[in-house]
Design a protein that fits this description.
The protein has helices at residues 21-31, 41-47, 67-80, 109-123, 130-144, 181-184, 188-195, 214-223, 265-278, 287-296, 320-331, 351-358, 378-390, 408-418, 431-437; strands at residues 57-62, 85-88, 100-102, 105-106, 149-153, 170-173, 204-207, 226-229, 235-238, 243-246, 251-255, 304-306, 311-315, 339-343, 364-368, 401-405, 424-428. It is of the alpha/beta class and 447 residues long. Helix 1 packs across helix 5, helix 3 (67-80) crosses helix 10 and helix 11 runs parallel beside helix 12 (351-358).
């Protein structure tokens, strides 16, 4: 079957034996004629040639938003329990190594290069995308380690994502909203159906979306998955001091709030704890490990507040659902005289809806181009901001203004020059926007 899989039209030469990680990543970018080509036939064919078998308990995390936070909390809780954990997330902010973590540490260049060499030898003439190749490499790396658990983030959708070659012992669906509509469909029902395909027969399927599309529930029933619904099978409650989780088997009380900030983090934490409860017979977790894990979980770029003045907030929010959460989080903060947006987005996203959600929060917009052809230019983004503001009923005095910049660094520097110590700067719209600012500040924290 694999011999009949179409090849790429131009096959670049594989890096030499002593090639660097950078050389391998450049090779991956040229290997396949398309950046994204959903489907499991090619990646499964190569996976069958690799030794990916592992006795580790495998958690697969899908969803529109909240995947990274849920993965980070799962990793931290399991690690605090003394388990050996591998975590795979994407995309990365600065270094590719961020995508693969083993026992809390990023994979080294040497480990990744070795894994790339293994996949290159196994794939033969089968063409793989950057994501497919790197996914197989990291899964191969995890399989070589004696791990107790794998925490794997779905990159896009679920049904046809390369990570879905792994049969999850527990699948988690964090949220379902409109994003990647060109690939997944333009309704929550269609997108939910795609994402629900990470569920497996008779295995726990955790749905943390409070109002899941009917297609999610229907697909779980059709395949015989053990569906855990938020509000029915698990829930949370809390006050200003602490919170509690309630699951099928009991409660976890007197929990400290997660180190990860934001309005939706208790929902993400509840999904992670439901997953922990559903696999308790395989990987028991103590109350103390839950407490420690929630306090230690770290994920850069998710409502991340940097120390110092003016306040700098980094958030990779890049779709309307995430923008609505960001707007709520900003509204829940204390008073700041002025708030400035450093804003860059991909052109295939719902740019206007993101702007509409956040229009009430910003006094000035610093619109940036990004280093990819997919992005909307800073000039065009400025025009979109001005158009939305002109038709908005939000009244801010003085009226918000917008200007354009060639890159996030320049936009951030301009915002810093204008901001006073009591003001705040919010960097958002894309992973590339946040990544473009990180090298310009020495104040990056882990939380």
């Amino acid at each position: 079957m694999s011999d009949q899989i179409p090849l790429s039209s131009v096959a670049p030469s594989a890096p030499s034996k002593d090639a660097s990680l950078g050389a391998w990543l450049a090779f991956l970018e040229q290997l396949h004629p398309k950046t994204i080509e959903l489907g499991l036939e090619r990646v499964q064919a190569v996976a069958d040639r690799l030794a990916l078998q592992s006795s580790a308990i495998k958690y697969v995390v899908a969803g529109t938003n909240g995947k990274g936070s849920t993965c980070a909390m799962l990793e931290a809780i399991l690690s605090a329990s003394g388990y050996r954990v591998g975590m795979y997330t994407s995309p990365h902010l600065i270094d590719f190594n961020e995508r693969a973590r083993i026992n809390g540490e990023q994979a080294s260049d040497a480990q990744l290069v070795s894994a790339f060499e293994i996949v290159e030898q196994a794939r033969g003439d089968i063409s793989l995308t950057y994501f497919e190749f790197s996914t197989l490499a990291i899964l191969s790396l995890f399989a070589k380690e004696k791990l107790d658990a794998w925490v794997l983030e779905i990159g896009l959708g679920g049904r046809l994502d390369a990570v879905n070659i792994i049969d999850a012992d527990c699948a988690i669906l964090t949220s379902v909203d409109l994003d990647h509509t060109d690939w997944l469909g333009n309704t929550r029902e269609k997108i939910g159906w795609e994402k629900a395909h990470v569920f497996r027969q008779e295995k726990p399927a955790i749905c943390a979306d409070p109002t899941p599309p009917a297609t999610v529930v229907e697909h779980a029933a059709a395949i015989g998955a053990d569906l855990w619904l938020f509000g029915r099978d698990f829930n949370y409650s809390g006050d200003r001091q602490q919170w509690a989780f309630a699951g099928r088997q009991g409660r976890r009380n007197a929990l400290a709030y997660p180190a990860l900030r934001g309005a939706n983090q208790l929902l993400n934490a509840a999904g992670a704890l439901a997953a922990i409860e559903s696999t308790r017979h395989l990987l028991p977790v103590t109350q103390q490990a839950v407490r420690i894990g929630l306090l230690q979980a770290a994920l850069p770029g998710r409502f991340q507040i940097l120390p110092g003045q003016p306040m700098v907030i980094l958030d990779v929010a890049h779709n309307p659902h995430a923008a609505a959460v960001l707007e709520k989080n900003l509204g829940n903060m204390g008073f700041h005289p002025y708030t400035y947006a450093v804003f860059g987005m991909m052109g295939d996203k719902d740019v206007d809806e993101v702007i509409k959600h956040l229009a009430p929060r910003f006094d000035r917009w610093f619109c940036s181009s990004l280093p990819t052809a997919r992005a909307i230019s800073g000039v065009d983004l400025k025009a979109r901001v001005e158009s939305v503001l002109a038709n908005s009923k939000v009244e801010i005095d003085p009226a918000p203004t917008a200007e354009s910049f060639d890159d996030p660094q320049s936009a951030f520097e301009a915002a810093c020059q204008l901001a006073q110590p009591d003001d705040r700067i919010v960097v958002f719209g894309s992973f590339l926007t946040v990544a473009g600012v990180l090298p310009k500040t020495t104040r990056l924290s882990k939380g």
